[in-house]
Inverse folding.
């Protein structure tokens, strides 16, 4: 991910948290004191978010020393350090929560994505994210999905056309919606249409989209829909995708699973800071 995007997220987070001053730290810690801490995971994780460390700590202390102990995307056992940071105790204390919040969130996404990818890997099915991301954090959340071995779906409303049920209702039919979208898209943007019945699938296939999203279908219906499509376009399954349901859904013959929970409701990883004020 581009450094400017990391910089934007981190600086916005620091400004939100610190405001005009870190009152507690300034009251208790002398400006010339040095500190050191290790960022340690309390659970097995896929590491994600290390680029944030340099930006966050150097924003408050240009002389801070950040020693990474692992690489981005590495699997780490519980009790192992991600990095050791030394510098101004005031700067480290002020930046600590912003760094931990982001690391915990991104490691949580990468770890859960890796588990989902591993669960369906024997079936050759891709894992995709969605647009169900936190406002302002989409770029880093989708980055975490990639670090976990997943793939990014469209980034926003601009880079692909995905026809949803409300679009279909407004236009009148699946076929007409696909035809209009194809005329608008041109050769450089793909057109995907959401279907939740076999009749819609048949109508969509006849209109020729690049992809069909099979929404909230059970495994038996998914198999029927895949047979109806018969390799004529890319097939994505969505709805009720969880680690425990994914293998059965993936076994139906679809090309990809899209899982919104990877970004909108994943549990943050348990990562802490073991402190020493020098």
């Amino acid at each position: 991910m581009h450094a400017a995007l990391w910089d934007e997220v981190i600086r916005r987070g620091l400004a939100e948290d610190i405001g005009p001053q870190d009152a507690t730290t300034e009251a208790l810690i002398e400006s010339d004191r040095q500190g050191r801490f290790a960022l340690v995971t309390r659970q097995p994780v896929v590491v994600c978010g290390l680029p944030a460390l340099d930006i966050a700590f150097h924003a408050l202390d240009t002389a801070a020393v950040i020693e990474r102990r692992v690489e981005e995307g590495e699997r780490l056992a519980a009790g192992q350090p991600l990095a050791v940071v030394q510098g101004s105790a005031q700067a480290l204390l002020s930046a600590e929560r912003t760094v931990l919040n982001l690391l915990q969130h991104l490691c949580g996404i990468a770890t859960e994505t890796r588990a989902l990818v591993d669960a369906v890997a024997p079936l050759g099915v891709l894992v995709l994210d969605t647009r169900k991301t936190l406002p302002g954090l989409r770029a880093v959340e989708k980055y975490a999905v990639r670090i976990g071995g997943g793939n990014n779906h469209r980034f926003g409303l601009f880079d692909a056309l995905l026809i949803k049920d409300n679009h279909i209702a407004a236009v009148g039919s699946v076929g007409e919606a696909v035809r209009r979208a194809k005329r608008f898209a041109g050769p450089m943007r793909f057109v995907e249409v959401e279907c939740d019945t076999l009749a819609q699938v048949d109508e969509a296939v006849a209109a020729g989209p690049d992809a069909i999203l099979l929404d909230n279908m059970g495994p038996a219906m998914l198999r029927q829909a895949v047979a109806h499509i018969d390799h004529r376009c890319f097939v994505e399954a969505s709805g009720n995708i969880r680690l425990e349901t994914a293998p059965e859904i993936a076994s139906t013959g679809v090309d990809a699973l899209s899982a919104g929970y990877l970004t909108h409701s994943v549990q943050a990883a348990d990562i802490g800071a073991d402190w020493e004020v020098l």
Notes: The mean pLDDT is 96.
